[in-house]
């Protein structure tokens, strides 16, 4: 008798061309295939899709996947079709004829998977329609969208509690790569999945190198990063505002780097075109606001750069997680400076919503700032945020180039007492620049204007440079020992915590910025073997395979990775199979692709393939 696990394993080999399940996949798939409900927390690139795709294929009926990613449904369905899986979607972008065709395929039992946008389920006609066919399971993708605590809240997700009420016997699996306890609890509660089995994977992404650099000339720093480490590779650059997205994309293009902008101010067709180009063209860089990226499953994004500080660790982790889904070495790089702290603190003060909302935003920001200012392993701190214990990683900036901690109590006292004097004695407030001028004893026009050279702190801070002082101000802001006044000018004021420092009751620990090194250090953790440099004959086969793949992708107008992933092509180039049998043993070569491309691939590998 075949057990559900046998059938699942057989499907893994035949359809997906993979040898073995990864991590929790097998347990999840067994549980859902036998009718259980599941909540799955797995990092980006962990392999969540198989967790519902295989049960959908093994169980009778159609797996219904709820996904907020309308713009990506076509690509998801194309990728499944390339594997010989019968998949379709229903969303608002389709014509009535297209919809009717999908509906009749579902009713005829000819679909393995059906992707739906959550708002469609709110329409009772959709539920009635689903009832007329056979539902294998419900998969709720990006399940953190139900969480109001999180950063991607979608009101339509709240309606999904109806799934259980209407179809109590259909198994449900909710999946997300966002892992805080609050989010997890909200998913369980709001989706009626408190009884469901919880599967939590490690959130570590060992192939991603986390780096947070002091920001001085962000665009130039970015260009250096691209030129020295990621020339010709795909990447995502995140900026806070639409204007800085536009400017940064322009700057890259002016410097000969292929880049496109993406933000909510662009028209829908422009956004769609830029997204499609990013997915389809090799080595394209997307400069975007956080409106871009959820569900982007391009496997070969080699770096994610942040030119502005993310508002939360969750956001940072999600965004950086879009790098390196294929397991190959990738970079997460963030440029961070004093102005970021001032700006985000001010945005919170000015944000709409009540005090509780602002407090939530502040908690999020403080955790992000703590990650930026830490002298410990970044990964350790990042994972600790998701309640996961780990050891020093050897693959983050702090591990590779350990920064020093130093006792900054005295400089902190000098700065804070300047702020206090101005505030108390003169009822004045100033931004960081002027405060630093005072400490350095600079006779500027403004110093003259206000006679600030008469302050007792004038000129008492010459032991530090201007940029060191900016680091002190930034860290005091990050630690809540200074605050940004709500006047909209970014002036600084003391906080309740300040006086303990001035009285010497509390010591201030600061981080000394290491001298920036912009060289890619060697990875000490295990990463996929494909990452290592290829010997010349293998490299030339790999290039031939890539050329062949580009032709195929163009002909079919699908992203190259829908044909085969880089990792699959590397394995082919390395193992150089000469028979179909050998070819089928390569990871990522399933039955459908073997039949469709097998002969051609063998001729590419032996050099007989005519290039068009
Ligand atoms: P997630 O949705 O969790 O971000 P995906 O489902 O897109 O991750 O999977 C990430 C990558 O890993 C994909 O390229 C997928 O094909 C691959 N993958 C998933 N499971 C396996 C497996 N068992 N063996 C080999 N590759 C796998
Ligand atoms: Zn580390």
Describe it for me?
The chain is of the alpha/beta class. The chain has 4 domains: 4-200, 3-Layer(aba) Sandwich (Rossmann fold), CATH 3.40.50.300; 208-336 and 374-401, P-loop containing nucleotide triphosphate hydrolases (Rossmann fold, 3-Layer(aba) Sandwich); 405-512, Winged helix-like DNA-binding domain superfamily/Winged helix DNA-binding domain (Arc Repressor Mutant, subunit A), CATH 1.10.10.10; 527-609, DNA polymerase, domain 1 (Orthogonal Bundle), CATH 1.10.150.80. It has a 7-stranded parallel β-sheet with strand order 3-4-2-5-6-1-7, sandwiched between helices. Strands 8-13-12-9-11-10 form a 6-stranded parallel β-sheet, with helices on both faces. Helix 2 runs parallel beside helix 3 (48-58), helix 18 (409-426) packs across helix 19 and helix 23 (536-556) crosses helix 25 (566-575). Residues 517-532 have low confidence and may be disordered. Adenosine-5'-diphosphate is lined by residues 18, 21-22, 25, 42, 44-50, 297, 299, 325, 565, 587.
Structural class by helix and strand composition: alpha/beta
**Average pLDDT rating:** 90
Tally the structural domains: 4
Task: Write out the distinct hetero groups bound to the structure.
Answer: adenosine-5'-diphosphate, zinc ion
Percent helix among the residues?
40-55%
What best-fitting shape do the alpha-carbon axes yield?
globular
As a whole number of angstroms, the C-alpha radius of gyration is 27 Å
> Under the CATH scheme, which architecture of the largest domain would be assigned?
3-Layer(aba) Sandwich
The separation of the N and C termini measures 49 Å
Major sheet attributes = 7 strands, parallel
Q: Give me the count of strands.
A: 17
**What is the CATH class of the largest domain?**
Alpha Beta
Q: What is the oligomeric state here?
A: single chain
> CATH homologous superfamily of the largest domain?
P-loop containing nucleotide triphosphate hydrolases
